[in-house]
Amino acid sequence: MINGIKKIARSQLLVPIIALLALIIFNLFRDINFFTISLITNNEGNQVLSGNIISILTGASELAILAIGMTLVTAAARGQDISVGAAAAIAGSVFVNILRSTQITPGVIIGAFVACCLVAILFGMFNGTLVAIFKIQPMIASLILFTSGRSVAYWINGGASPTVESPLISHLGSFIPGIPIPTPVLVVIVFCIIVALILRFTNLGLYTQSVGINERSARLNGINSVWIKMLTFMFLGVCCAIAGVIAVSRIGLINHETILLDIEMDAILAVAIGGNSLGGGKFSLIGSLMGAYIIQALTITLYAMQVPSTDVKAYKAIVIIAIVVLGSPIVKRYAAQLRDKLAKKPMKVTENY
To answer: How far is it, in rounded angstroms, from Cα 88 to Cα 90?
Structure first.
């Protein structure tokens, strides 16, 4: 038991666990009904799950997927991609453009998804080339797409904000008939399983960490650091495509100006709250996932407290600053020193007569 507690105390997951527990305890005292999950009948006559927990899991779907991709990019490139929202807008625009060109069937949806993945991967390769080959800092390299990406999304659909009316798309963004769990939550679960299997049966995770910790040493050990960085940016492109498709399916249209607006900041914060170093190296995808759901839980909590929507970002900033500071290396070092002092046993002095 004691060894388990010590292991958690030294783990990257310490900060997100504390933050999550704090939110749970706060809501338990504020309103225990916050955690109530009920089975209701939606407008389509289907039995579905409802409640704040379901809203948190559903609302954080896009952020959770982007946080996974952002974690790998951060670990390998020692920096962050701030263009994920714009890339998701482009992918969503491609998705809608293809769907509106023909009758919507399952095959067309799959084809549109593959197309928007390829487009997002190309933009990921663009960012990756600037970072891996031209040695430009990731945040500066992705600033190009961050600035121009939503304009590209605007051009794809001729400057319009077209809607997509199809039961299939509606089911993709809400609920599949007969399944009470929201589809975006199922997408996140499937995606996490696939990523876990990739990291389990390949050396991608090890190589990513090696490049982020010491690129020169990794290169001397035969690891192609350029390819690893490119691969993480391409993977992040796939994450952007999935997030864009979920966002489009949820609202049934593409608005290049507002879709997933500012989500890149939340993705970076999710990585930081998850206990990952923004300077690259060792990473924890579980921590980043927890960070994404903590951010969404905080948002839902503030709305439940009837905080005006215009003030939510300010309150979130205050809480997130506190979480990030508590997880900073300096605070961790002082906490470790304090723990070691408290753990020291007083020396027994024996007197000889």
So the answer is: 5
17-18-23-29 Cα dihedral, nearest 10 degrees: 120
Q: Which CATH class is domain 12-31+48-342?
A: mainly alpha
Instruction: Provide the whole-model pTM.
Output: 0.91
Q: Which of 261, 205, 210 is nearest to 235 (CA)?
A: 205
Q: Distance (Å, rounded) from C-alpha 2 to C-alpha 10?
A: 13
Residue type, 162: P
Q: Which residues of 271-291 are buried (b: 16+ CB within 10 A; e: fewer)?
A: bbbbbbbeebbebbbbbbbbb
**Predicted confidence (pLDDT) per residue in 43-63, tens digit:** 888 899 999 999 999 999 999
Rounded to whole angstroms, how far apart are CA atoms 110 and 177? 19
The H or E element spanning position 41 is: strand 38-41
Two tokens, residue 280: 């690259």
Residues 75-96 pLDDT 10s: 999 999 999 999 999 999 999 9
